[in-house]
UniProtKB/TrEMBL annotation:
Protein name: 2-keto-4-methylthiobutyrate aminotransferase apoenzyme
Stated family: Belongs to the class-I pyridoxal-phosphate-dependent aminotransferase family.
Natural source organism: Dyadobacter koreensis
GO cellular component: cytoplasm
Entry's transmembrane regions: none
Length: 379
């Protein structure tokens, strides 16, 4: 083969999950919940399977689900997305992101991304002949330097990818960040791809500010979301993309030949489950408790906590404790302490000494307490 992705191997999530399995370690590496989704949601899937909703869904997705998403997004942002021609149901946010990137990126186009960055963005840009251009977040993940972002724009820049709440750092973008973004994309006529899969997991009273909430920004944005995190159903791979109708028309040309359509009875079930806002509005306090339990359980290890404002990840710095490379430490802790994490360097383009690990706290409370005990013994 002449590899399309010569630099890419197996993802760090697969690598660390396998290592966790081999060493029977607690897997705080790959981000997925340990607990099951709601029994009521499972009953709905069962209901729709028994009703015979088992053949291809419409290419754009089950209309009832698109309508439910339109209603929910309108209530949160006052922006209207038309269910018929501005909402597409995808195979998880991964497909939504890939197709959105593929829709806008042509050979030689540059795409600005913030690093550390979720691992699917760069390969998606490169497979479409584009070039990722990186803006590195400050080490404390405290602010975005918009002068630096501006300085990265060239005449080849086509799009910018944002992610709030952010994986892996847990950073939440502020209203000022979104305003700055709006000014920048307006000035340079750029597309925006906004990854909002953790929209309902946000802590300490902060608010999620969607790209959809600023009309001029929404007019340039492919908003990618997922029900995997919101309903503890990462294995269902049901996500979506919201975008203006001219964007959606191009997006669907690619979506229809990539997957055509997405698993039918699950779309009906999610559409019905979404009608009760409590099903997603309670998620932030649920995860905030878990973040606090985990942080308390590791407080005597000497690991320093980075801010985690949202998502289900806690980053910790170990520079006072060890000189090891983060991958080496993550592997050693999996083998010796029995707790797996993700080395933060895997979210950066250039290998560097970051001395930071990412732990996923989407786990049962006793698992988090046990992980704390195990880490206390080894660190
Ligand atoms: N974006 C981010 C930031 C994620 O963390 C994830 C999954 N962990 C995805 C996209 C992919 O979502 P999905 O599982 O719905 O494909
Ligand atoms: N998004 C999850 C994480 O950040 C993993 C998803 C995957 O394995 N591709 O851990």
């Amino acid at each position: 083969f002449q590899s399309k992705l010569p630099k890419v191997g197996t993802t760090i999530f697969t690598h660390m999950s396998k290592l966790a399995e081999d060493y029977k370690a607690i897997n705080l590496a790959q981000g997925f919940p340990e607990f099951d989704c709601s029994p009521d949601l499972q009953k709905l899937v069962d209901k729709y399977i028994k009703q015979g909703k088992n053949q291809y869904a419409p290419m754009a997705g089950v209309l009832a689900l698109r309508e439910a998403i339109a209603q929910k997004v309108f209530e949160a942002t006052s922006t209207e997305y038309h269910p018929v021609n501005e909402i597409t149901i995808t195979s998880g946010a991964t497909e939504a992101l890939y197709v959105a990137i593929s829709t806008v990126v042509n050979r030689g186009d540059e795409v600005i991304i913030f690093e550390p960055a979720y691992d699917s963005y760069v390969p998606a840009i490169e497979m479409n002949g584009g070039l990722p251009v990186f803006v590195t977040l400050d080490p404390q993940y405290e602010y975005i330097d918009w002068e630096i972002v501006n300085s990265k724009v060239t005449e080849k820049t086509k799009a910018i990818i944002i992610n709030t709440p952010h994986n892996p750092t847990g950073k939440v973008w502020t209203a000022t960040d979104l305003k700055q973004l709006d000014l920048l994309v307006e000035k340079h006529d750029l597309f925006v791809i906004s990854d909002e899969v953790y929209e309902h997991i946000i802590f300490d009273g902060l608010q999620h500010i969607s790209a959809a909430s600023i009309p001029s920004l929404a007019a340039r944005t492919f908003l990618c979301g997922s029900f995997g995190k919101t309903f503890h159903t990462t294995g269902w791979k049901v996500g979506y993309c919201l975008s203006p109708k001219e964007f959606t028309a191009e997006f669907r040309k690619i979506h229809q030949y990539m997957v055509f359509s997405v698993i039918t009875p699950f779309q009906f079930a999610i559409a019905e489950f979404l009608k009760e806002p409590e099903h997603y509005l309670s998620l932030s306090s649920f995860y905030e408790t878990k973040r606090n339990i985990f942080n308390n359980a590791i407080k005597d290890t000497g690991l320093t906590l980075k801010p985690s404002e949202g998502s289900f990840f806690q980053n910790v710095c170990y520079e006072n404790l060890s000189d090891e490379h983060d991958l080496a430490l993550a592997e050693r802790l999996t083998k010796e302490a029995g707790v797996a994490s993700i080395p933060i360097s895997s979210f950066y383009d250039q290998p560097s000494d970051f001395r930071v690990l990412r732990f996923c706290f989407a786990k049962n409370n006793d698992t988090l307490l046990r992980a704390g005990e195990l880490l206390n013994k080894v660190i």
